[in-house]
Design brief:
The protein is α+β, with helices and mostly antiparallel strands. The chain contains seven helices and ten strands. The chain has a four-stranded antiparallel sheet. A three-stranded antiparallel sheet has the order 1-7-3. The protein has a three-stranded antiparallel sheet with strand order 8-10-9. The two termini are 32 Å apart. The model has no long low-confidence stretch (mean pLDDT 87).
Length: 200
């Protein structure tokens, strides 16, 4: 976990949590689902998406090992339906902490509250970046930033991803993404392959 968790806290999480594995592309939490558990990524990477009424999606942020979805946490605490979709970006293992145990952890483990505040701050900054990108940045700049960030998360300069997937995560169209990627390849910024994109 990205904070100083005591052995007692880790043991308690293992005792009360339920672990489950998901393959890349599997839905961990769907839109409008009842939030009965708080997902904590044990291994792998998950992505949090927002979907509009027409089905168009946009990437909000990634969840790496030791991180949780603060929007799921807040929604669960207030007995609200999920406003986001959480998807395994690669094979991912999740620890689900039942909502009814959250109050117990807040009371028994002060560092758990620190963890929640840390997540809240990090996700707030990431959401501000999304708003800033959509409002003020051109699509080619957003696309290049997306590729760089995803490479950073995966630890590789080559992504196995389709143009359609990128368009969905950026809230754009496949035609626009394909045109901009070809332009970036011509400029020597990326190298394109079959469902692969490499940073040069």
């Amino acid at each position: 976990m990205p904070f100083r968790a005591t052995p007692e806290l880790l043991d308690s999480l293992s005792e009360h949590g339920i672990q489950k594995k998901y393959y890349a592309g599997e839905i961990i939490l769907n839109n409008n689902a009842n939030i009965r558990n708080i997902p904590i990524v044990v291994e792998g990477i998950a992505k949090v998406m927002r979907t509009d009424e027409e089905g168009k999606e946009i990437l909000l942020y990634y969840l790496k090992a030791g991180e949780s979805c603060i929007m799921s946490f807040l929604g669960g605490m207030h007995l609200e339906m999920s406003k986001v979709k959480v998807i395994a970006d690669e094979d991912t293992e999740i620890l689900f902490l039942p909502i009814e145990k959250v109050s117990y952890f807040l009371k028994e483990f002060p560092q758990w509250l620190d963890y929640i505040f840390m997540l809240y701050n990090k996700r707030f900054e990431e959401l501000l970046e999304v708003v800033n990108a959509v409002a003020f940045k051109k699509m080619d700049e957003r696309l290049l930033n997306f590729i760089k960030n995803k490479c950073n998360h995966t630890g590789s300069n080559t992504l196995s991803i389709t143009h359609e997937q990128i368009a969905n995560e950026l809230g754009s169209s496949r035609v626009v993404v394909s045109r901009l990627l070809k332009q970036m390849e011509d400029e020597g910024l990326v190298k394109l392959g079959r469902n692969k994109i490499s940073l040069v």
